[in-house]
Write a structure and sequence with these properties.
globular; single chain; Glutaredoxin; 7 strands; alpha/beta; 6 helices; 16% strand
């Protein structure tokens, strides 16, 4: 066996092991908003508490971006990750991702991870949202929130009406932060 073949087997084994350690929820990737970079969900979020939110730039709930950013800033030192996933499933997302980025980054100062617009409901939903729906329910409107523990399990979901500083959402985030990864 050549050194190249051995390296390939080792790297392949590591990749398979890494995928085996990655929860089903995170076994996909997304295009980062206004970037050429892809977001490998396993690489970025596995083993970390996560808040996933489907967003829309022209939704009446868009001011929640400010509260989501505040929540992220409050808990990012404790490993909390926030993933915003813009979607036009409810016909309230900008037609141009440059406008989406402006709303998020300029208007609301978002620093947490944002993807390019994606389908979040029905047969066209991306794998992340199919798994979120499988564990709880599909989003019923924009700014539906899912709190995910370090093992990729949804521990709570919240309607659009739930503001990011709501006590029940904050408690769920704290529970996700306190979770431990399965060994």
């Amino acid at each position: 066996m050549t050194l190249r073949m051995l390296a390939g087997l080792l790297l392949g084994g590591l990749t398979m092991n890494a995928l085996a350690d990655c929860p089903a929820l995170l076994q996909s990737d997304l295009q980062q908003l206004r970037s050429r970079d892809r977001i490998d969900l396993c690489e970025r979020f596995a083993g970390k508490p996560l808040l996933v939110v489907n967003t829309a730039s022209h939704c009446g709930f868009a001011p929640q971006f400010k509260g989501l950013e505040a929540l992220y800033q409050r808990f990012k030192g404790q490993d909390l990750q926030v993933l915003g996933v813009p979607s036009d499933d409810f016909k309230q997302e900008a037609d141009d991702s440059a406008e989406t980025a402006k709303v998020c980054y300029v208007n609301y100062g978002v620093t947490f991870t944002m993807s390019e617009p994606q389908a979040v409901r029905g047969d066209d939903a991306i794998p992340l949202f199919r798994e979120l729906a499988k564990q709880t329910s599909a989003p019923r409107w924009n700014f539906y929130k899912y709190v995910v523990d370090r093992n990729g399990k949804v521990i709570a979901s919240f309607s659009s009406m739930t503001k990011p500083d709501d006590e029940s959402l904050v408690k769920a985030v704290e529970q996700a932060i306190a979770s431990t990864t399965a060994q």
